Every structure is written in structure tokens, then in C-alpha cells.
Amino acid sequence: MKVAFYTLGCKVNSYETNGMAQKFKESKYEIVDFSQKADVYVINTCTVTSIADKKSRQFLRQAKKNNPKGLVVAVGCYVQVAPSEVAKIPEIDLCVGTNEKSDIVAIVAEYLKDSENRKTDPNEKVLIDDIFQKEEYGEFGTVTYSENTRAVIKVEDGCDRFCSYCLIPYARGRVRSRKPENVLKEVRELAEKGFKEVVVTGIHVASYGKDFQNGYQLIDLLEEINAIQGIERVRLGSIEPLLISEEFMERFSKLDKMCHHFHLSLQSGCDNTLQRMNRRYTTKEFREIVNRIRNYFKDSILTTDIIVRFSRRNRRRISSNLCVFKRNSIL
Fold it and tell me: Residue ranges of the chain with pLDDT lower than 50?
């Protein structure tokens, strides 16, 4: 049996695709390129913008063109927030939510048992749980499969911020942090496999540890990852600007393996707009955060997201641009 994957969206989706691919490999599937003929196609969808929705639909339809008899499975955020919409796409055989990804092999196996009676009712081919009922991090186990030279490490899921333009809390649920011992075990095994660089990411990685009772936070985890032999570089994924406190930077600056790249989502340069977005900082505070980073690292690289044409009434139809901070810019 051959399986092919296509991933849209963030680094968390990339990690989870690696996790699903590893589970299929362990079940004796052969992983092939998405453009090839496969028995199963898994499209890991994104829904952060209307463009992401459109691309998800395009690749789901493309999968069926690649092999009309293949099993096409839509998984992830687009399915979670719009299950009825996705289920009506005729090319899709199964719709699987964000929390069911770790069970993907068993779900596919169950479906293939009765291949001649594939479900045609859109409501019968949707498998999703109420994401807000999930209180613990859903483990994939140790994920060491990757087609890249750097490995992505997912340490957290969910978001409690509820920015007015964003659907992600409804796709991912509340903050759920991964146990430190499981993260560290995965990093050590990656180091043993020869990976030199890891990217620490999550849906809202700055909230890591928020749901713990012992006060353990992201900076504590980074210090432990930094001490693992074999790993030479550690990167942070996109982070909430308010994570960058003086205490955080003081401890962060002592970690010799951390890359000095900070992706801070600004979203708007207007305080009134930030307030309507339900962002919890002002432009003045953001400027102070940027200066704090530069005080510690003269060679820091800063990137961000800027939302254009913000509208709460049309929140799913927003696109964002990537902006690189320059010395002579407004910051």
C-alpha cells in the first residue's frame, strides 16, 4: 500500500504530517510523492485564511485526479471548523479533525475493511471530536521521521487568546502543553539519528506550561533542550511578543545553541486596530520588546506578520504579509 501527503499551513501541521507518515511507515506503507499514484492521500489542511481554504480544496480534488480509485482523506483545521462544508466536496472519502490525526492509520484501516461500501452521506464520513473538551496534549509518540535536515518539535497545542480575526482556537481548542520528559526524549532520539537543528513550535508556543501546576515554562524547556548533546542549533517558531520579558531574555541570552531569530506577530501598527483585534499590547510596548531583543543580540533577525484590510465582520477573508524589520524602518 502506498500513501502520499500534502501539508498546508504552519510548522505544527508539518510536524503532525511527519507523525502521521511515521505511523504509516510503521504499518508497512510506502510513502510516495503527492504527484504519484497512491492508495491513500492525506491532505493536512489549513484554515487561517480564505486562501488556505481554497488551496485545501484544490489539493483534495487534485488527489482524486491523481488516482480516482484512491482514498482521499482530509485532516486538520479546515475540517475541524467547517466539517459540513468540507464533507460536501465529492472527491473526499473521509474527514478527520485535528485531534484524530494520531489515530489516522487505524481510521483508514477501518474504512478500507469495507471498501465496496464507501460512505456517501456527507455526515457519515466526518470523524471529529469537540476540541474544547480536550484537556490534555494529544501525543503522537516520539516523531523522528522528517524529509528535511532540521526537525520540527511540537511542544504545545491550542490557544486561549481569541484574537477577533482568528479561527485557530476553534480549530485547536484550549492550551495543552506537552510533558517536558516527552519533548526531551524526542529531541535526544533526533540527535541520535543525526539531526543537528530543531525548531520548537506550537499553536501558541508562548503559552507553553500555562496548564502545568508546577510553574514550568517555555524558558525552562529551552534550557533543557540546549543542554542535549548532539543538537547544535535550536530555533523558536512564531511567538507572542509579550513572552519577551526582561527575565526571559536574560535567561535566553545564556543559551549558546539558540538562533537569534524572533518571529513576533505585530498584526497592526495602529493601537485602535490592535484593540479591535483583541491583541494585548500597544505599538509602544511592541517597540520596547524589539529594543529589548536588540539590547541582548546586536545580530538579531526580526520578522513579523502584518494583517491588511482588517475587518471583524469578514474575519475569515483576511490575508497576511511577511515583513522583515530593518534598522531604518518604523521600528
Answer: 314-331
